[in-house]
Design brief:
Blueprint (H helix, E strand, L loop, with lengths): L1 H11 L5 H33 L3 H14 L4 H27 L3 H14 L4 H28 L3 H14 L4 H19 L11 E10 H12 L2 E4 L8 E10 H11 L2 E7 L2 E6 L2 H7 L3 E6 L5 H11 L4 E5 L4 E6 L1 H14 L5 E22 L5 E4 L22 E4 L6 E15 L2 E5 L4 E16 L6 E21 L3 E18 L5 E17 L4 E17 L14 E22 L6 H4 L32 E2 L27 E2 L5 H6 L3 E6 L3 E3 L3 E10 L5 E6 L5 E8 L6 E6 L2 E6 L2 H6 L2 E9 L6 E10 L10 E9 L10 H8 L2
Helix pairs in contact: 2-3, 2-4, 3-4, 4-5, 4-6, 5-6, 5-17, 6-7, 6-8, 7-8
Keywords: Membrane, Signal, Transport
Family: Belongs to the bacterial secretin family.
Subcellular location: Cell outer membrane; Membrane
């Protein structure tokens, strides 16, 4: 058909010169060849895309467009195919990722980036995969910690997961389990270490604080470091029977206005509980919380009034709160935000608005013309036009009489009508938010304003709502009831008023109802009774004749109209989402005292049963019994009896013979139990010693897995010397070093090597006993678990799988 059209055109232009005709022929042949080849290339690209070979389809069109950059058909096909291919690949990747197929999703996203390297959807998808893998690694560690009953570590891992993905279901489940256990543990404290959970009975009367702490230190094998402002001679009076050592320490800190900072598993720093010391020693962390539903400023007001965090910033754009404070405050803030950042309740309102109207109209009688006209016609035959010369020729034929046509109309009409104006909108609204419905018109009203100074008149247009207007503000209650403030207004234009200047105004008739309802879910309420009744009676008579009794009916026309309308509103609330009440353990949690925030309440008690009888060897330690050199005496540790007996340990003054037989030195090593590959970490080396002999000991480690970074002595450099070898550090400690360091010797910094597998290793401290010296722990072992730096390295055959799927 195209060739036929072009040939007709050539025949029509037969008078063109030969060179011109040849040029036109060449142009037409090229156009025809282009038109015939374009659909073929595009169809082939479409077939490739339909077969899933999106890259080949886009590449084929890209090559054609590069060869013919002026061809808009190729350009449009290339853009359309590229967009469709990217959408298909990204949709497939998201679907496979939602089904847990991480490797396939990564390959599909990479294919999308092969088509468009800057495709934001694919880049975001790869970032989500990295987050998902990192979250999966944290989830595995959380589950492993949960199996080992390490709920603190499990809670930390799930907090990291939920900070990136608040909707992670498995992490939410683990967090709920941890919090449920924490709630029960507040009533029944969890055993953390055998020493801290020993039952002791103490009677301390005016004992110095330092000596009381030393007494507990010997029993719990803890190291205490006192701030310089702590009064060591503060008298401590304490009478405790069968209480845990941990609870005794906590109550001493609360009673005597002290705070503690955990340096490692066996070392506590004790300082006065004042604002200056808290600012110096308290470790602050910064965390960002993202609000999913609640307004960030409302959450900020809640946190300020309840927790009073040190620093807080609100970002309205990202709907986030940045809080800097202690871990206890951050965890309490997390719980409060979780409780109050919930999806708002919503209700679906089924509304039916009916206006039932009845119209009765009658028109009976004879309607005569209302006027008769008389006119004069001249030779121009135009009524009312007469020449001056024609005045003398006026006769009876010059006058014409005009009456209505028809002369009379017999009206015999009686109309009865009824109408229902129905509006049935459905609207969904949040709790305590107003919903507006307007069914009608916006009538323009023009107003004019005159400037008294310049005399300039300006006009403005405002719009008047006319019709059916409904305003509803629901409030949803937990008992599946909805309270609603309802305002219904029905208006219509009664008449139009035109001013002297031509401006128009409107008289509006309005019917309004305001009420407050409380309905159950699915209950329908009818609001009726807004009735409008309008009755009009009118007569048209022939003057004089219409007033004759009886005969006057022939000269009278009666017109009667009766309009009655009633407005009916039916409203039915259907709750879509109600207020979700939190679990009991989540809505109530311990937060310490007014001056001291804590998430775990202290309690003088333990899981063991209490005994009514007092221990036989309970000793009251008085100030007079303290050694003159301000060093507390060596107190022999009495181990707990068997679990079956459950009897508490009574602390007593040491027996000299027993003290001589007990070990004089104890080495300890504190550090993390798990670390990622390639990450540095610190371990703390400490010793409890009571003699004055020189001590030599070594720290050994696997140099294939660990690398020594530095050794930082806590004691003076001349008191502790060391030499590092391959996989070993040799130490020499002088007696003066123990007094200056309060038994903490050094901090050792190590770094794990990058690894693709999980490894278990140990740090081993071995000591050489000098003549006359007994090392309580000749060999101390610290287990360390090394995890791969990234879970990507744990994915097997991933590259091979990607190559198989790649085009």
């Amino acid at each position: 058909m195209s060739q036929g059209r072009y040939s007709l055109a050539l025949r029509a232009k037969g008078k063109l010169s030969r060179p011109v005709r040849a040029g036109v022929l060449i142009l037409l042949v090229s156009c025809l060849s282009a038109c015939s080849s374009t659909p073929k290339d595009i169809d082939r690209a479409g077939q490739l895309a339909a077969a899933g070979d999106y890259e080949a389809a886009v590449q084929a069109l890209r090559e054609q467009y590069q060869q013919h950059p002026e061809n808009l058909i190729y350009r449009g096909a290339l853009i359309r195919t590229t967009n469709l291919s990217l959408a298909a690949l990204n949709s497939q990747a998201e679907s496979t990722l939602n089904h847990g197929q991480v490797n396939q999703a990564r390959v599909l996203y990479q294919r999308a980036l092969g088509i468009d390297s800057q495709n934001r959807r694919a880049l975001d998808g790869l970032r989500r995969i990295e987050q998902a893998q990192r979250q999966q690694q944290w989830l595995l560690r959380a589950e492993a910690a949960l199996e080992q009953d390490d709920r603190a570590a499990a809670g930390q891992y799930v907090r990291q997961i939920l900070s990136e993905n608040p909707n992670h279901e498995r992490a939410q489940t683990i967090r709920r389990q941890v919090r449920e256990h924490s709630q029960m543990a507040q009533l029944q404290p969890e055993i953390k270490s055998p020493e801290l959970n020993q039952l002791v009975s103490l009677e301390l009367r005016d004992t110095g604080l330092k000596d009381a702490l030393m007494l507990l230190s010997q029993s719990a094998r803890l190291n205490f470091i006192l701030d310089q402002d702590v009064e060591p001679d503060t008298p401590v009076t304490l009478f405790v029977t069968e209480a845990r050592i941990e609870d005794v320490l906590e109550f001493i800190f609360q009673t005597y206005a002290l705070e503690k900072k955990v340096l490692n598993a066996k070392t506590l720093l004790i300082y006065p509980a004042n604002s200056e010391k808290k600012a110096r020693y308290a470790d602050l962390y910064t965390r960002t919380f993202y609000a999913s539903h609640a307004a960030p400023d409302r959450l900020a007001d809640l946190l300020r009034s309840v927790l009073q965090p040190a620093d807080m910033h609100i970002d309205e754009i990202s709907r986030s709160l940045v809080i800097r404070d202690t871990p206890e405050v951050l965890e309490a803030a997390e719980r409060l935000i979780e409780l109050h950042d919930t999806a708002p309740a919503e209700v679906l309102l089924d509304v039916e608005i009916l206006e039932v109207s009845t119209d009765v109209m009658s028109n009976l009688g004879i309607e005569y013309p209302g006027s008769i006209s008389v006119s004069v016609e001249g030779q121009a035959t135009t009524p009312g036009v007469l020449r001056w010369s024609e005045l003398g020729d006026i006769n009876s034929d010059s006058f014409t009489l005009g009456v209505g046509d028809p002369l009379a109309v017999f009206n015999l009409r009686n109309t009865i009508g009824s109408g229902n104006i129905l509006a049935k909108p459905q609207i969904r609204v949040k709790n305590r938010e107003q919903a507006d419905i307007l069914i009608g018109d916006k009538v323009p009203v023009i107003t004019s304003t005159l400037n008294q100074t310049s005399g300039f008149e300006s006009q403005s247009v405002t719009y008047l709502d006319v019709g059916i207007k409904l305003e509803v503000e629901p409030e949803i209650f937990p008992g599946n009831e909805v309270s609603m403030k309802v305002m219904l207004e029905v208006s219509n234009i009664a008449r139009e008023i035109v001013g002297d200047s031509g401006l128009r105004a409107y008289q509006v008739g309005t019917r309004t109802a305001n009420t407050t309802l409380q309905l159950r879910d699915g209950e329908t309420q009818i609001l009726a009774g807004l009735i409008k009744n309008e009755e009009i009676n009118s007569q048209s008579r022939v003057p004089g004749l219409g007033a004759i009794p009886g005969l006057g009916r022939l000269f009278t026309n009666d017109n009667k109209s009766h309009v009655k309308s009633e407005l009916v509103l039916l409203i039915t609330p259907r709750i879509v989402r109600n207020v979700l009440l939190p679990d009991a353990y989540a809505s109530t949690f311990y937060t310490g005292t007014k001056d001291r925030l804590a998430l775990t309440p202290p309690a003088l008690g333990s899981q063991a049963s209490f005994h009514q009888e007092r221990p036989e060897q309970t000793v009251a330690v008085k100030e007079s019994s303290i050694a003159e050199d301000n060093r507390s005496p060596a107190i022999a540790e009495q181990r707990m009896q068997s679990a079956e007996s459950g009897e508490p340990t009574a602390l007593s003054l040491p027996d000299p013979v027993a003290a001589a037989e007990s070990p004089s030195s104890v080495l300890s090593l504190a550090g993390p139990g798990a670390i990622d590959g390639g990450q540095p970490f610190n371990v703390i080396l400490a010793m409890d010693a009571n003699d004055q002999t020189v001590t030599r000991f070594s720290l050994g480690f696997d140099e294939t897995l660990l690398e020594l970074l530095s050794v930082t002595p806590v004691v003076a450099a001349e008191d502790l010397t060391y030499q590092s070898h391959e996989g070993r550090i040799d130490f020499t400690l002088l007696p003066s070093g123990l007094e200056s360091s309060n038994n903490v010797l050094a901090t050792i910094s190590l770094q794990t090597h990058d690894t693709n597998q999980q490894h278990n290793t140990q740090l081993i401290v071995s000591a050489e006993a000098a003549p006359g010296q007994d090392i309580g722990t000749a060999m101390t072992q610290h287990a360390l678990q090394i995890f791969p730096a990234s879970i990507d390295d744990m994915v097997l055959e991933e590259d091979a799988y990607a190559e198989d799927l790649a085009p």
